[in-house]
Design brief:
Elements (H helix, E strand, L loop, with lengths): L1 H63 L24 E10 L15 E4 L8 E5 L3 E8 L7 E5 L3 H7 L1 E11 L3
Parallel strand pairs: 1-5, 2-4
Antiparallel strand pairs: 1-6, 2-5, 3-4, 3-6
Length: about 180
């Protein structure tokens, strides 16, 4: 009888543990779906920012074309840099250039306006203004980026090397994901 009672108690405990596990699986599934939705929203937001940057870059190239050169069609208007807000802050960093291609740590493709950061200093998704470069988003991490350093994406190695390594004071704005 003692063995039967022990067996019943173990079966009850096993059933309770099974219910707890099923609930944990449902919760994990809900969290996974929410994270997938958030990642898709973040990627779409970053892609819009990068498209704006590409249009601005094309506009800058068109304006820099020598007189008599065949003009490109005008680029669509690009939103001005975000105004300084009470939540904006500045940070002095060492900025260097890189020209790698492929997906970034945030899942979007490397492109103009993508900045690699140390997420312990600048959270991924933070919009920033970089003097001499323009508007950007912290969307990547670099293996050599530590502390108050950033890597700015350039379309070619030549342009990245031309930027060099310089100290700049950047303005951090709210997260692009908010």
């Amino acid at each position: 009888q003692a063995a039967r009672e022990r067996l019943r108690a173990l079966r009850r405990a096993l059933a309770n543990e099974g219910e707890r596990l099923a609930e944990a699986e449902r919760t994990a599934g809900a969290h996974a779906r929410a994270l997938a939705r958030l990642r898709a929203e973040k990627a779409a937001s970053l892609e819009r920012l990068l498209a704006d940057r590409r249009r601005a870059r094309a506009s800058q190239r068109a304006m820099a074309r020598p007189a008599g050169a065949h003009p490109s069609p005008p680029a669509p208007a690009v939103a001005p840099p975000p105004p300084a807000t009470p939540s904006a802050r500045t940070l002095r960093v060492v900025a260097s250039g890189y020209a790698l291609t492929g997906p970034t740590a945030s899942g979007v493709q490397a492109g103009w306006g993508v900045v690699a950061v140390d997420p312990a200093v600048i959270p991924l998704g933070t919009r920033l203004t970089v003097p001499g470069y323009g508007e950007a988003v912290a969307a990547d991490v670099g293996s050599a980026v530590r502390g108050a350093e950033i890597d700015l994406w350039f379309p070619s190695q030549r342009e990245a090397l031309a930027w060099g390594r310089r100290t700049v004071t950047i303005t951090l704005h709210r997260s692009a994901w908010e």
